[in-house]
Amino acid sequence: MIGLNGVLADGQDAQNDIHLHLFYGQGCPHCSQLRLFLDKIEPSYPRLIIHEHEVYSDDEGRELFEQVSKAFNVPIEGVPTIFIDDKVIVGFSSSLAKSIELEIQNCLTAYCEDPASKISTNNTIKVIGDSSPAENPEKTEFSQRLTIPIVISAAVVDAINPCAFAVLIILMTAALCIRSDCSASNKKKALKFGLAFTAAVYISYFLVGLGLFSVLQTAGISHIFYYIITALAVVIGLLNVKDYFWYGKGFLMEVPLSWRPAMKKILNNATSPFGAFIAGFAVSLFELPCTGGPYIVILGLLAKEVTKEIGILYLLLYNLVFILPLIILSLIIYKGISTTEKLEQIRQDKIKLLHLIAGLIMLGIATAMILSIIYGTI
């Protein structure tokens, strides 16, 4: 990164260079996309010098943003914001990418002033673009309206996965029948087992999601990756619908049968609430690769649409919806409303229906994502 003060000091020594100042925020999805775009085109323009200034956590960068915006006589409308010659480009989209490159090309044939010099001149400035992240406010609003319903819907798909129910039932059966004593006195302990297990699942899923979300957002989500996760949503939906009509044939949207003995052994070895808590982490490692498809779709969507702070709130919501059925099952068994045997029988009887519901929800999510592509909100 080249500091603005250093540029001021250089003055006219680098008149042939093209100075582009980018103000961005760490965790801002469209900032990541813009930085990837600049990294891609930079080798094609040897005279281009990119000055990057982070404004979310860097006080100096934020102060520079205010100074340059004041010098350009324009309000701060958000990030990303680019200053090049006498132009200000706010936001990022495919059309703005063309505008950015066009301004760079113009500077190849005509002298372009370093934007840093505007601090003392206050010349007239041309602003390109509206506000981040999109040029059309209606499209941005459409995208924002989609996010919460999609997050909750995908969480429901994860929540009604038959494997999660089966795992909890096995664990609570073991807790209720410690040392061959299946008396009602063990119900309170079984509740502790269930809640400890559920807490571990919540924490592990949230931490994995947070890690992947941070990686995806830092890297920037390209249009191609968005198409991939949209296609993944379609595939997950179709496979779940397949499991309703032809359960057990072909690829099954559940933990593989070969993995289940190891999972059951881990669960049966849990002899205390703390053991159930540890088992929750271990079992999550088995379940995530096989049932985490909806989670991946949501992580990709969030990394593209929201900032890190908002994304964390969505992840907390997603995982809360995900564990709600586990909490309800634990309370049902504790209150004696039903038994683990009856619940397991219900699970077996309704397993295909659960797959159908999950499949239809995922196809609905895929449809919404396809509409966002058609409407041009990505």
Write a structural description.
This protein has 2 domains: 4-128, Glutaredoxin (3-Layer(aba) Sandwich); 137-374, no CATH class. Strands 2-1-3-4-5 form a 5-stranded mixed β-sheet. The two termini are 29 Å apart. By secondary structure, it is α/β, with parallel strands linked by helices. The protein is built from 14 helices and 5 strands. 66% of the residues lie in helices and 7% in strands. The model is unreliable at 1-14, 121-127 and 130-142 (pLDDT under 50). α8 (187-219) packs antiparallel against α13. It has helices at residues 4-10, 29-41, 59-71, 94-109, 118-121, 137-159, 162-176, 187-219, 223-245, 260-268, 273-291, 293-305, 308-335, 340-374; strands at residues 18-24, 48-54, 81-84, 87-90, 126-128.
Quick tags:
378 residues; elongated; 5-stranded mixed sheet; 14 helices; alpha/beta; Glutaredoxin
Largest sheet: 5 strands, mixed
In the predicted model, the low-confidence regions spanning at least 5 consecutive residues are 1-14, 121-127, 130-142
Sum up the overall morphology in one term.
elongated
Query: Helix count, per DSSP?
Result: 14
Helix share, percent = 55-70%
**In total, how many beta strands?**
5
Radius of gyration: 27 Å
Compressed to H and E, one letter per element, the order equals: HEHEHEEHHEHHHHHHHHH
Report the span from N to C terminus: 29 Å
User: What share of the residues does DSSP label as strand, in percent?
Assistant: 5-15%
In spatial order, strands of the major sheet run: 2-1-3-4-5
Give the class from helix and strand content and strand pairing.
alpha/beta
The structural domain count equals 2
Mean pLDDT: 77
